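Sat 14:20. Reprocessing the chain from the morning session after the first attempt stalled halfway. Input below, unchanged.
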Amino acid sequence: MNSKSNLESFKTLMRAVFFVLPLLFVFEGYGQKISTSPTRLNFKVPPGGSQRGKITVANNSEERQIFQVDFGDFDASREGKSEFLEKGQQARSCAEWVSADPSYFELQPGEQQEIMLVMDVPQDSTALMARWAVAYIRLAQERKAKQEGGDGLIVNLNQSYRFGVYIFQTPPSVTYSKGEVIDFTYKENSLVLRLRNIGETFLKCNSYAEVTNLANGETKRLEAKNFTVLPASNRDVVFQLPSDYPPGKYSVLGVLDYGNRDEVAAAEIEITIPERGN
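Finished this time. Tokens:
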């Protein structure tokens, strides 16, 4: 039986499926064997409109793999770590607006599959703000067992790995973009620039710190950080001072560049690097 026939049989059996879903994110071993691209999709759909986006999944392993696509929510911590949630748990979720074709498929070793995601935005007030979701591409191992007391089969879909693709939806009418620096601190060689997205769009940020030696005027820029901040969210950007900085007094400028041609947000502090013990 060919792959297509196997897949059709699997879909039929899914009507009698129960699922075992330990929701774990992908570990390194499978991350090297299964790939998804891109890692994020940006939609700009007006109320009542529709738009399509494409994800490609490749099976680089040596085994046939079965995949399921579904959707959930996510949030981001102040440290920038994603918290993944079930659908409907995020106030600004658009997970209910997105569908996938196909939502179930299998791939033989070396094969890849294009998935079409469709964003269908309702014609109401909920569509007038930026929203977000995540598409889960779940890697499943199919196990079949005889159904007790009958002649059918139960397919137990044991899912241990999933891959996330971030989805961002911004209505074309939403254009107000602004970030601000709300705090800048220094402790034990760490500089922490605290930011807030006070606009209505997703902020694609570039942040950096410039350190000036007040004794000789020498200025060095620390490695820049690139990240996205969700609307109405805070973010802490941490810069580590190299351990070989000489002791003394410094002026440090922390900068948030969020893509506005006319302005950036910034804060400046003075710090003292103490003498280090032998």
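The chain has two domains: 3-169, 179-273.
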